[in-house]
Amino acid sequence: MLFLVSILAGVLILAGNTVWFWYVTSRPKPWARFTEAENAFWVKRGLPVQWAGACKRFEQGLGLRILVATGAIGGAILFVSALTLLLMHRHA
């Protein structure tokens, strides 16, 4: 059962991060509008402007893309390793 949960988790992590990476890289203008609105929301709630600006630069820059791609790779590794262990366990 744990193998199936791990496989499902790997698929969901891989799919979610892949879609997120696609959206961030292929639709930069809507993503920029979203991050601008998010930044304005947090500044209105009292977050310091410097910190909100740093978060916005991270979300619109290469850092977020690397983080999301790393998550997708991690999901793929989890999926493949759990599937491999499941297949090895069934044949043992």
H/E element string?
Answer: HHHH
| Class from secondary-structure proportions | mainly alpha
Largest sheet: none
Principal-axis shape equals elongated
Report Rg.
18 Å
Give the distance, in angstroms, between the N- and C-terminal Cα atoms: 16 Å
How much helix is in the residues?
A: over 70%
How many strand units? 0
Any idea how many domains? 1
- Number of H- or I-type helical stretches: 4
Proportion of β residues? under 5%
Determine the oligomeric state from the structure. Answer: single chain
Low-confidence stretches: none
pLDDT average, as an integer? 91
Task: Provide structural commentary.
The protein has 92 residues and is an all-alpha fold. The chain has one domain (2-91). Helix content is 91%, strand content 0%. It has four helices and no strands. Helix 1 packs antiparallel against helix 4 and helix 2 packs antiparallel against helix 3. The longest helix has 30 residues, at 62-91. The radius of gyration is 18 Å and the shape is elongated. It starts with a helix and ends with a helix.
